[in-house]
What we know:
- The protein is α+β, with helices and mostly antiparallel strands and 195 residues long.
- It contains eight helices and four strands.
- α1 (2-26) runs antiparallel to α2 and α4 (66-86) packs parallel to α7.
- It is globular, with a radius of gyration of 18 Å.
Amino acid sequence: MKKKIIVMAMALCMVAGSTEAGFAATETAGYQHWLQQIMQRIETHISEYINGSMDKLPEQEKEENPQVQGNMAKEVVSLTNAQRKSAGLNALKSSGQLTMLAQLKAEDMAKNGYFSHTSPTYGSAFDMMKAYGVSYKTAGENIAKGQKSAQSVISGWMGSSGHRANILNSSYTEIGVGYAQDRNGNTYWVQIFKG
């Protein structure tokens, strides 16, 4: 069983490693950073597993399932656009770049145990956009902590005048959403908007 897992992980490392040049040639530096983080996690887990110091994934790794993150993010975008439609506004287009930044921010809050528009790692959402080469005329960020569903986070944001103003801002055309959980099950939500 141990050998099977090691072989599968090594194959994943080879596949991920072989695509890194493709990412570098066609995508932003953010995707390279993401791929490097994944590669480092895989290498660490293989090493720990081989040495016998790990027989299962750490709790945080289990909770940060990319499929769950993606589903939560898609649902928040859909519910955001439903609110905009009700207000007679155009739908926001989901942006891969903004989604990556929102996810980085959500994971950063979960990992480092803070809740703020200013990250000790990345600075503000505007700093992040600048660092990753995302241009904008107008931009904004909504964050939330503790809600267990996309519906509850949207309800909370819509009940707050500042957050609601971002969701219903007619100058925004694109959105990115991030979602993460910490080891204690606390949820962190991020919306980044631009126009």
